[in-house]
Amino acid sequence: MSNLTEQQQIDSHRPRILRLYNLYRVILGFGLTLLTNAVLRDGLLELSNPAIYEKASWIYLFINVLIALLLHRGRRDLHVFLVTLVDIGLLGVIFFAAGGVGSGFGNLLIIPVAIGNILLHGRIGLLLPALASIGLIYLTFFLSLTHPYVGQSYLQVGVLGCIYFAVALFVQRFSRRLYLSESLAQQQAASLASLEQLNQLIIQRMRTGIIVVGPDNRIITGNEASAQMLARPIQAGPALDKLVPELDQRLQQWRRNPSTRSTSFHSHSGSAEILANFKPLGGSGDKTILIFLDDNTQVAQQAQQLKLASLGRLTASIAHEIRNPLGAISHAAQLLNESDQLCKQDVRLTEIIQQHSQRMNRVIETVLELSRRRPSEPQLVDLALWTSSFLTDFRAANPPTDIIECEIEKEGILTRIDPNQMTQVLNNLCQNALRYSGSAGSERTIYLKLYEDGISQLPTLEVIDYGPGVADEHVGHIFEPFYTTEASGTGLGLYISRELSESNQARLEYEAATPTGSCMRITFAHPKRLV
């Protein structure tokens, strides 16, 4: 430890040590003044000079009370040295008045020597025992002139002086070690506190959600990522089954069979798909569980990209084999339809052939377009401005009888998407909403609503129509490829819309509107999430 650090350690402890030292001197002063009473000291102490003892005792008490009131901090070494020197000098006078070394008052000088060497290291500290020893020797010599028996006490005075030096050296060495140990402990405590703060920062900044659950199934702590995934604050105390029942069910399944792989879940409607993993925090006997929460959206997105790539390779391999015969069939039906020898029934059959040929060709073109789709290029988008721009283009491209109403909660709702891909999704949803709201040419109204979800705080866009809605038996299949309830439909519109939404880490879901109609809800990702 450097001298500066050691001095800082001494300065930090100096006020407390001085307060104790002042209290000791005041108490000692009261004790010495009590012995000025002849009745109290009778049989306890034989004074060689009672008058000097009485004056010195009262002066000692008065000065120490004054020092305790005025000099309770002693910021400088000079202050400490002078106070200790005054203490040694007055105790030396009392030592002389009490009769020398035989009175035992020489032992009182050990305390100021020790305190001085705690606060004053080096040569200035060793000067105190030297002055105390010289003072006692001089006072003993002076006392021996009037009291011959004192001359036989020089050996005891010498031993007492050696004790002063031994105490000074021991206290300096011991206090130095204490300061070193304390400094090391403070450095280690600071390092541990810094490391703990760093660990907390890393845990809070992790994209993996972390929740610690105690043996009583109550939450101990959780990081910020877990709160964002579950769309609710994670605080110590609540039971897991009350806060997130879906997660509690998977925890109970894992406790019954740790080898079972947990299934993904949604904490609420419109939330991200979450995958939970569990691990005991301590040894086998510790029932505290560490829960890791991962957003399964990225995994699903990678699987989606692989699926699109496989679909593209498959489509490319069969497109030529299908489209050429299909084109020949369509052309032959068209030529046959131009013949004058066909009856009315045969003409109708050729029209059916052409109609279904065109439908198959649209399916192939749609699949080819999907397979050749470029990867998403996400960017930070203000959804309010993006929606307003879409509405302007959509209204211009549709007849005035098609009315589209819009409610935007506020400006500055941000997310990261590929605006071109999501424009295609929104256009498809709006066209579907218009189609189910009435026949072309009639007055049809749909409703768009942009807001931030109150639970998840995620940007949300709803497309609502006022049509008949989707029958319950069809709800579970509307996003399946090639599933359609219309004779002329391809069954790929909603499938492609969901695929593009997932490629942009958005979720497309259906919900029945009230009292009639359908609601297609797009829940966008948080703007800080990297797509």
Automatic annotation (TrEMBL):
It catalyses: ATP + protein L-histidine = ADP + protein N-phospho-L-histidine. GO terms for molecular function: phosphorelay sensor kinase activity. CDD domains: HATPase, HisKA. The keyword Transmembrane helix applies. PROSITE patterns: HIS_KIN. Residues 317-528 form the Histidine kinase domain. InterPro entries: HATPase_C_sf, HATPase_dom, His_kinase_dom, HisK_dim/P_dom, HisK_dim/P_sf, Sig_transdc_His_kin-like_C. Its EC number is 2.7.13.3. The keyword Transmembrane applies. It comes from the Bacteria. Keywords: Kinase, Membrane, Phosphoprotein, Transferase, Transmembrane, Transmembrane helix. The chain crosses the membrane at residues 21-40, 52-71, 78-98, 127-147, 153-171. This is histidine kinase. It comes from Halopseudomonas sabulinigri.
